[in-house]
Design a protein that fits this description.
This protein is of the alpha/beta class. It has two domains: 13-61 and 124-194, FAD/NAD(P)-binding domain; 79-116 and 206-277. The protein is built from six helices and 16 strands. Bound molecules: flavin-adenine dinucleotide (FAD).
Amino acid sequence: MSSRGTAAGDRGTAVVIGGGLAGCLAAWALHGVAERVVVVERDRYPDGVDFRPGVPQAKHGHLLLEAGQRTIDELLPGALAELLAAGATRVPLSGGLRWLTSAGWLAPYDSDLAVLTCSRPLIDQVVLERVRAAPNVEFRTGTEVIGLLGDRHAVTGVQVNRRGRHGEETEAIPAELVVDAAGRATRAAKWLSVLGAPAVPRDRVDAGVSYATRFYHRPPTPPPTPPSTCRATPPTRAASASCCPSRASAGSSAWAACAASNPPSSPRSSRSSSACSATPSSPGR
Ligand SMILES: Cc1cc2nc3c(=O)[nH]c(=O)nc-3n(C[C@H](O)[C@H](O)[C@H](O)COP(=O)(O)OP(=O)(O)OC[C@H]3O[C@@H](n4cnc5c(N)ncnc54)[C@H](O)[C@@H]3O)c2cc1C
């Protein structure tokens, strides 16, 4: 969102709406530029690696593609090593990931790309802890942005509601820059229209995909199956399923995620439709 300039030498305040993955990384990117960065997050973060309401998809299986891994590691050097030490697994795309497509099993190929499999809360926690350590980044948790300050020409801050011991308190946080990282819950377009700004054009693409995920304990000696399996058979069958290692630390488990227009909700139907039960006819390396 636009900002008004600050006096020379004053690097000003940046407010980030939402302290999810994008919000934390935006705060980190800004902490060397702005005098002060305030991240406003309506949830209170859990102690340690755990789920929270603002990231409901975190209860599903999670893969981080190569570009995401590299970007996070470039911004926060050593973050990838930290994730691996905490139980994340890098599954090589060539050979490590068996991928069943509508044309059959993907043939082996040379690639140094890999997907990172671990729980989403683990990624969030590693990133959050790094960003929290920055002295000029301030987190306001349990606090919801309810509107923007400013006029139709410039945004000059945010209006927040904080759930305190004495009920809800409203506060204005002035800022030179406001970043909207509220994800799919964003109300920025509505707030801008309240300020009198021109309507924000909006595109909505509904992929029509729903997820159902089950977590399975992995046996101490895993069977000789591929470490991960994926299946996608578009366009005739929208259903796809994947099975990858999740947190490989204590209480090790594997996850199975099924994505479909009508994903199975019972263990029996989940098992029968899962790619985890499929066997590659032409195994990769
Ligand atoms: C079912 C599912 C599976 C997915 N699987 C993968 C995957 O395997 N790999 C992958 O890379 N991506 C995956 N994604 C996509 C990924 O989850 C999103 O791209 C990512 O979460 C977006 O991050 P974000 O920080 O922009 O938004 P969000 O994660 O939505 O975070 C927004 C944050 O803003 C906060 N917030 C919202 N409104 C306010 C407000 N008014 N005031 C204060 N705080 C507010 C919320 O509490 C939340 O913490 C999946 C998504 C879904 C739905």
